[in-house]
Amino acid sequence: MKRRDFVRRSLCAAVSSAAFTSIATKLNLAHAATPQIILGGAGSYRALVCVFLYGGNDSFNMVVPRDTPHYNIYNATRAAIALPQNSLLTLTAQNAAFDGALYGLHPSMPELAALFNQPTSPVAITANVGPLLYPINQAQYQNSSVPTPAQLFSHSDQQLFWQTPSADASGRTGWGGRLADLTTAIGQNPNLSMNISLDGENVFEAGETVIPYFVSPNGVENIDIVQDIPGWTEHQQRRAVLNALMNGPLSHPLERAYAAQFKRTVGNFEQVDAALQLPPNAPMEARFAYADANGGDYLGQQLRMVARLINRRTELSMTRQIFFVGIGGFDNHDTQLQDQAPLFASVSKGLTAFYQAMTDLSLADSVTAFTASEFGRTLTNNGDGTDHGWGGHHLVVGGAVQGGRYYGNFPSLAASNNPDNANYGQIIPTTSADQYAWTLARWYGLADTDRDLIFPNVSRFGGSNHHHLDFLGA
Amino acid sequence: MSHTTVKKIRSTTAAIVLTTMIAATANAGDLLFTASFDESPEGPYNDYEAARFLTQTTFGPTLAEIQRLRRIGYNAWLSEQLALPFSGHQPYLDQIAAIPEDVYHNIRYEAWTQRALTAPDQLRQRVAFALSEILVTSDQSGAVGGEPLALAHYYDLLGSNAFGNYRQLLELVTLDPVMGHYLSMFGNEKPDLASNRRPDENYAREIMQLFSVGLEQLNLDGTPVDGDPLTVGVQPVASYSQDTIRGFAHVFTGWTWFNCPIDNWGGCGPGATGAGWFSPMSPNVEFHAFEDSKQLLNYSGVALLGGILPATPRPANPANVQPVRDDLTAALNNIFNHPNVGPFVSRRLIQRLVSSNPSPAYVQRVASVFNNNGSGVRGDLRAVVRAIVLDSEARARPVVASSAGKLREPLLRWTQVWRAFAATNPNNRFNDWYVWYPYYTPQASLHSATVFNFFLPDYAAPGADVAQAGLFSPEFQIETDTFVTRFTNFLTTTATWWFSGNPSLDPNDSRINIEREKALSANVEALLEHLDVLLMGGTMSPFMRTTLKNHLSQVPLADDNGYRRSTDALSLILTSPEFSIEK
Description:
The complex is a heterodimer. By secondary structure, chain A is of the alpha/beta class. Chain A is built from 14 helices and 14 strands. In chain A, the strands form 3 sheets. In chain A, strands 2, 6, 8, 9, 10, 11, 12, 13 and 14 form a 9-stranded mixed β-sheet that branches.
């Protein structure tokens, strides 16, 4: 037995579920400012799950034209990194793609292909999405006559924009964070953050006042010294002293920030751990059995914990939740073909298992997962990989999704004379990240009249009356 | 006030008097503190100052080193440290391999631990660590994940050149095959229009964004240049464009394994012994982009006209590789001489060593030394490090409610504790590391998830105290609920279990030694004063001291075989917000 396990178990043996009350009363509550907007009716539950693909996903190899004329263009352009035509998994869509092409998925994604192809499909493909300040065409881009987001091809900045998205904001908040700052829901637990992250810090969920709660794929652990163990006098004394130090007069701003973080951690543990100790949902767990094999599938493990938390939404008194999961490895400057296969396999298995888990909970219509990535990648290659691009295709999965359909415009993949090519193979997005995000937030419950509080730029773009896309309804 | 007078007063236990005396001494000392680092003030004048200095310049003060520093003063200590060679990490891996024992990255972490805790060249090890968080590479990349020895070699490169010149360091890093594979400059080829192939832009982007210039133009004091002073707020000005990235991408072509035959570009490897991993990359004429002029950085005083590197004639003889080297030299010079580099590097080093929020004046003083070390040399890291740690802003104990200082990052928090209490391992192997990481701490040497290090220089914890106050707190970026929990547990386990007086300790476990503290604990005030010096540089507040004293005084001296007062004091101090923030 490892030393740390021994120590933790001996401390945990006598733990009660009583809250660390004197600290809890001084918690910096997740909704310190009174939220202005109430989402959703009593008893309704909605959750968004952002699946962030870090590095810039080369989605031109994820959703690929399979009819010969369009495939030939793709193949000529992508050359060394093109997928073989007969390896593509056939997508049978309910609408025609904008460019008239037939599409297929990367060969590693059979689960998603099947889900897309089923009669009432929960999978939508949104084409060529990216951060924009205004709609822009090739001439405008090359003449710099229309503003574009700064630092377009820089990872950290574009992650910021994708998660923000207001592409001209320099703030450090994301649209998931602003949603949590400004909204709450009927019956919502005021002590637990609306935003939960399985992959640590991310801009998407950071608000001005709301801080996302981090959970690991294995759950939540307690701080030993903080546990309430009545009967262990010496421990209780130390616990009280630490409480005094945490709540004492702290003159340094970083000390106060540290104490605030510490107290948040304690309060959040109490609530979530109690909920997760309840019996699991066996069929739902079985969907994720694959996630522990072969060294573990990190995305699957994260999504499984999201499912477990959603399963206990009533115990946690949550009626609106935003989850963030993330996996890396998509920055394929090199060895793209061999690197992409397991990544796409993971995405396909994960999104499918998660959707099935939601059906097990009778929540398929209440939970929507969506991919995001800081950019797509260049059409052209650097030998065995691609560089940072701009627009890319994304997947939205959920029972409320009008699936089995394409949304937005597929760009030309031609290597030359391509009107969608910004300059060097980066494709100009035809749908803004704002529109994509607004569509999801609107379904989540944000009213059309409140849209500009979180998406001030989206009215610059097309779409229906309120500038959203239709993949979650008109 | 003489030093002997201070000693006499300190031998009482009157904390209030002590504080006043310290303030008075600091005032007297301040007369010797000038805004300029040139006239380095002698000091430290008390144990608090010595401890604070060692917190910034080593992996943590020890009582012995505090006393030694007080005897010889800052300048002599620095001179000694600056002269010591780097205790390499790769030789440690070689020793383990010779046992024989398999060497994976855990042995790299073990080497890092062993050096941090025991190496005599503490300043050089500390600066190497700081550089490893700026010139980032990581074993989390598939390209170099299988090469622990090569990564240790890269780290040694940083350590050996920590007090050299930044221009040379940039070149060594650029040509190191670990960096070459990590950021894909290795094997990068000139354009091939027939196959729609362009040079890879990865290294071009990151060497500018993260290693030298940054995204925005900077003033000498590190603040961003305001592109439109007539508009409210600061309108940043980009320091380079996509064209610049493309230009550098074309220069960074034609590099491969050391001494690869010129006609074997694609088939060359690191050699049967893998020695290529430990040698700089070699140039290849055929795959270097000579054609086309390349837009590099353009700035006032730039050597290249308009910042443009002209096309050069492709050598007729492919054995003539010098022109490839010349292009690289010109490109690195172009980067190195950009006016951003001084403030960019200085601010980051200050953040790693001293404070998250240096004043612009402090950054400017250090950046000025980067630009000219006093003898006309630009990029002298030895001078820059001296300037950072001797600056009055680093030496002055922060006044109450100041924002100077930083959250101790996990690796530094635990090395501080392990050094303060003379940690040992019965097998002389600090290989608990494989137990500690990645469970207890999100950090390990050369192990960040991305090239952006564990945290960004501009990260600010959300909320009123930091982000809304316009402050930065990089280390908070990894203070997630998960690691606040686990790392706190790690520290309390250290204090209450992994100590040599614990009869139940596993015989193979590393452990700290608190016999000295146990002996002191009959006198609670003396114990707290001792721990305040050793762990907090004398910055423990009166409230904290009183609270701890009230608790410890009622703990029976004999509890837990006489250890309880010490373990209680330690576990409470190590988890406190005041200790967590280094000031």
